[in-house]
Amino acid sequence: MELFDVYSLYDIEPVSGKGSHVFTADGTEYLDLYGGHAVISIGHAHPKYVKAVSDQVGRLGFYSNSVQNSLQKRLAEKLGKASGYPDYSLFLCNSGAEANENAMKLASFTTGRSKILAFGKAFHGRTSGAVAATDNPNIQAPFNRTENVVFVPLNDSEAMRKALATKEFAGVIIEGIQGVSGIHEPTEEFLRELSEECKKTGTLLILDEIQSGYGRSGKFFAHQYSGIRPDIITCAKGIANGFPCGAVLISPEIPAKKGMLGTTFGGNHLACAAAIAVLDVMEEENLVENAAEVGEYLISELRKIPGVKDVRGRGLMIGLEVEGFTGSDLRKRLLFDHHIFTGGAGQYTVRLLPALSLSKEDADRFLTEFKKAITA
Ligand SMILES: Cc1ncc(COP(=O)(O)O)c(C=O)c1O
After folding, report:
1. Interatomic CA distance for residues 329 and 115, integer angstroms
2. What global pTM score does this model have?
């Protein structure tokens, strides 16, 4: 059997990792400024994570959501504390798209309305509702296209107000920082206006923090820079450092009803053990603060480099564009000539999404190699 050929692959295979470094089978080392697409939060093969997951799989890897699972309760308590949302409740699932799918469903169940407002260039995942709210017709099948999703430009207050005034929308979905579009932020003022407008019109505000959350922006959630409190927040990626896991954080104003949401694998024992270990390590090693500090350092140093046209983002979620390079050319050069993994977005943007534990030394190594790469 062949693999279904949907990915453009680099001809390289990491087989092990340690912190912000990965290694191929012949022992060649690479600096990982990509984190496997913003997924590696506490670093590769963190010993506490390895022990927690290994111990759990040796005890009980899985049982269904028809019995008590105290690991889920422990995770909810820790996540509530770490995120600043101890009064919210938690629904666990398996991926980012699934988290958004459930968030939009919940908004619709709660309000009785059927429409979702989304923003230009948004990416919310590949499942049917999530991809319908993604502003990219190339990845929507005819089956996914629906009049229930309406797009307005990001940061366009007038268009947003006009749409919500119809009171037809169950929810608005917005990324804390747009990732796939190439690192574009809603302004703090726009988020505050959006939150107010949602309250006025009975629309639920869904913050997609799948890429920008879990410490990546230098705060636990990127929207926390604006001081708003959304009705629903979605997480995935860094939540379990690579073990598949998604989460929906739900305001106490939204009532649960037996059977309204559900999943076979979501919240399983292994995912919970992995996610608890991530929160423990994030707390013990002050990783949110590290993301803020090392991120600020990287952003300010990158802005000083001649030839760098634009640097966008916060914390360790950074997009940059360089004079004379497409994103894909620069990424290839960084990977094959300088042994550094980075991410891409659109034609010109290179994305940096390293582990939140990235050290200042590794940031300096990146800066040195990056300068060589763009002047070679
Ligand atoms: C903001 C955002 N939302 C949703 C998703 C979808 O997550 P997943 O690939 O886990 O379904 C992504 C993935 O890149 C994302 O960046």
Report:
1. 40
2. 0.98
Q: Angle between the 269-284 and 287-303 helix axes, to the nearest 10 degrees?
A: 70
Instruction: Verify whether ligand 1 is closer than 6 Å to residue 179 (CB atom).
Output: yes
For residue 376, what pLDDT is reported?
Answer: 78
Q: What domains can be seen in the chain, in order of their start residue?
A: 14-46+286-375 (3.90.1150.10), 47-284 (3.40.640.10)
Residue pLDDT, tens place only, 114-123: 999 999 999 9
Token pair 């629906």 in the structure block, residue: 146
Residue 187 CA, ligand 1 centroid: distance in Å: 21
- What single-letter amino acid sits at 87? D
Token pair for 310: 């634009």
CA distances from 123 to 101, 141, 264, 315, 371 (A): 13, 15, 25, 20, 31
How high is the pLDDT of residue 183?
Answer: 98
313: helix, strand or coil: strand
Tell me the C-alpha distance between 168 and 342, whole Å. Answer: 41
pLDDT recorded at residue 180: 97
β-pairing verdict for 204-208 and 232-235: parallel
Of 312, 345, 313, 317, nearest in space to 330 by CA: 345
The β-bridge relationship of strands 89-93 and 246-250 is antiparallel
Q: Could you tell me whether strands 317-322 and 308-314 are parallel, antiparallel, or unpaired per DSSP bridges?
A: antiparallel
Rounded distance from Cα 232 to ligand 1 centre (Å):
16
38: which 2 tokens?
């913003």
In angstroms, the CA 209 to CA 274 distance is: 19
Report the alpha-carbon distance of residue 157 to residue 141 in Å, rounded: 30
Strands 21-24 and 14-18: what pairing? Answer: antiparallel
pLDDT at position 71 is: 98
Tell me the best of 237, 239, 248 to mutate to test the pocket of ligand 1, counting ligand atoms within 8 Å of each CB and taking the most.
237
Q: Could you tell me the strand order of the sheet in which 169-175 lies?
A: 89-93, 246-250, 232-235, 204-208, 169-175, 115-119, 149-152
Q: How far is the CA of 306 from the centre of ligand 1 (A)?
A: 33
Q: What pLDDT does 98 receive?
A: 98
CA distances from 231 to 105, 198, 256, 269 (A): 13, 10, 14, 27
Tokens of 127: 């499942």
Residues of the chain with pLDDT under 50: none
With vertex at residue 191, the alpha carbon angle to CA 187 and CA 193, rounded to the nearest 5 degrees, is: 115
For ligand 1, atom 4: residue with the closest CA: 124
